[in-house]
Amino acid sequence: MTLVEAERRRRQSERDRANPDDHRVLSFRQWCELNGFSMSTGRRILASENSPVVTQLSPRRIGITILANKTWQAANARAP
User: Fold this and answer.
1) pLDDT tens digits, one per residue of 45-68
2) pLDDT at residue 13 greater than cutoff 80
3) Rounded to 5 degrees, what are φ and ψ at 58?
4) Lower CB count within 10 Å: N or C terminus of the chain?
5) d(Cα 28, Cα 62) in Å, to the nearest integer?
6) Domain presence at residue 24
7) Number of structural domains, the chain?
8) Of the candidates 32, 40, 36, the residue with the CA atom closest to the CA atom of residue 64
9) Cβ contacts of residue 44 below 8 Å, gap of 6+?
10) Is 80 a domain residue?
11) What range does the domain containing 46 cover?
């Protein structure tokens, strides 16, 4: 293993340990409830270009990871 690869793996391990809950997948309903909007608004958001990364759980079920939700929220934050 090269020095660069060892460093990359070390940083990845630190990120995973920092908040392992970030990789938890929320159901679509949980994601909507967490963000305080209705499921119809959630569907509209997911249909837009500015939506969080969606995880396909099964052919008919989707979810959003907590990290994807945090990233999406940060990208949509307004400047004061």
Assistant:
1) 999 999 999 999 999 999 999 999
2) no
3) -160, 180
4) C
5) 6
6) yes
7) 1
8) 32
9) none
10) no
11) 3-75
